[in-house]
Amino acid sequence: MISKKDITKRFISYVTIDTESDPESNTTPSTEKQWDLANKLVQELKDIGLEEVTIDENAYIMATLPSTIDADIPTIGFISHFDTSPDFTGANVNPQVIESYDGGDIILNQFENIILSPDYFEDLKLYKGQTLITTDGTTLLGADDKAGIAEIVSAMEYLVQHPEIKHGKIRVGFTPDEEIGRGAHKFDVKKFGADWAYTMDGSEIGELEYENFNAAGAVVTIKGKIVHPGYAKGKMINSMYIAQDYINSLPRLETPEHTSGREGFFHLHNIKGDVEETQLHYIIRDHDKEHFEARKEVMKNLAHEINAQHGKDVVHIEIKDQYYNMREKVEPVMHIVDIAEEAMKSLDIKPIIKPIRGGTDGSQLSYMGLPCPNIFAGGHNFHGRYEYVPVESMIKAVEVIVKIAELTAIKNFEN
Ligand SMILES: [Zn+2]
Predict the structure, then answer these.
(1) 185 has binding-site annotation
(2) Where in the chain are the domains?
(3) By Cβ atoms counted within 10 A, which residue in 182, 274, 344, 413 is the most buried?
(4) Is 383 annotated as a binding residue?
(5) Catalytic site residues (predicted)?
(6) 335-357: per-residue pLDDT in tens?
(7) What's the pTM?
(8) Annotated catalytic, 293?
(9) Residue 81 C-alpha to ligand 1 middle, in angstroms?
């Protein structure tokens, strides 16, 4: 359908443009350099023949592939982000293409002795004989999520060149700043105008996700009383000891390092304190909405208990919801997941359906009125020097996009 050479070339043309986002910035996009790739993508979408290609003042890109049939069928969308994670540098990416991978160690960087080994990264074994694109060991690759962009552009190009394939109207959306949690917040869902969409932002081939955490952040502030230690008896309140009580009163095994699957947790990620004041920064995560609410109650009640013991203003807690499980918004329109699953099966891809232990742009978009499950883009080991992507997985993702477009047109929906 699409050649390995073409998609490799396209992918490399994206990852060699630095688009690292910056959580400290207040602008959108958070970094000027994201415009470099954004402007190139706008031109490319026009060149391959898409219509209504737009880019707004925040670098959100949208485009349309018109319907090829005269029927009232849903408009679907495909979405990716073009920024890369600030966790690791994305400047001067120098991709290495390894053809017919032999299943052994890959030397990413001879000088620094950086090796991508299947002994440590067992997933590599799945791709023996395939073509891998890796880093040179000094940067991330940016397959998250430029693989997704390469796949969507390639699928649209293929559909433009094959007008005999019957499909409805398809919308394409590329966003900045996903990696700093702001990919969806300025996304104009109304302008996008799709009935539903898919983010092409998952990892291993077959991944299909429509569940993510409910998420909140909590700041627990504990006030102490500083008195000269020599005269402190009965007077000093050391906020750090009260903080310790607070920490120890939460279940020690309900933490990220002791949980998996659909198990939720309390995660203490930062402590800052002295005698007078200690601050504990937590994140709260749970797929189940009731359990999520219960976790927040546990943290509040604990604060009340300590206040009852030490005086009413010792512990102050502030909890802010961050995002919610998209399952609630996707389940009523479950056919959108079923279509993706059917598309994969018809292409001999084994669907891997599992809850995300995190959030996605799709979860925010789902709550903004655009139900948006997540599909694999093919890469592994995101946000670091060991990131790689098999070209065969990217081609499969292109095929999944085309198949979803076809299936949406032949199903009978009442909308
Ligand atoms: Zn991503």
Answers:
(1) no
(2) 4-211+326-410, 214-323
(3) 344
(4) yes
(5) 83, 178
(6) 999 999 999 999 999 999 999 99
(7) 0.90
(8) no
(9) 7
